[in-house]
Amino acid sequence: LSYSSWSLGGLVQPGGSLRLSCAASEFNLNHYAIAWFRQAPGKEREEVSCESISGRTATAADSVQGRFTLSRDSANHTIYLQMNNLKPEDTAVYYCALGNIGCGYVMAYWGKGVLVTVSS
To answer: 30 exposed, middle or buried (CB, 10 Å; 0-12, 13-18, 19+)?
Structure first.
């Protein structure tokens, strides 16, 4: 899994938006649950959002409900995380992941992570 050059994270002001993209060119995304995780400095990694293999079920952490949206473009083998109204506490390294069982299980494939810093 790799990240598009135009979505390598970066510095964003509070209240701003950012879309992360994760390229999964070697995967048929219709066969995987998709997810984004994040790990803030000094904290454990947490699941941000996950969508089931079928795409019919999606979950999101309480802290990002209504602000972050996970989606997939299977035709272009890409996973997205649209992040709006960013807050300083969203600062973290973000990881995309694929699971061949479903959400709530260990993910099988991981991207390397991109740093998102929310600061004025």
So the answer is: exposed
**Paired tokens of 84:** 């709006």
- The predicted pLDDT at position 8 comes to 62
Sign of CA dihedral 51, 57, 63, 65: positive
3-class DSSP state of 89: helix
Identify the top-confidence range among 3-7, 21-25, 78-82: 78-82
Q: Do strands 109-110 and 114-118 pair parallel, antiparallel, or not at all (unpaired)?
A: unpaired
Q: CA angle, 95 as apex, 78 and 120 as ends, to 5°?
A: 105
For residues 20 and 81, the answer to whether their CB atoms sit within 8 Å is yes
Q: In this model, does residue 80 exceed pLDDT 50? A: yes
In whole angstroms, give the CA distance from residue 93 to residue 114: 5
Q: Give the distance from CA 14 to its chain's centroid.
A: 19
Tens of pLDDT, residues 57-68: 888 899 999 999
Which tokens belong to 48? 């941000």
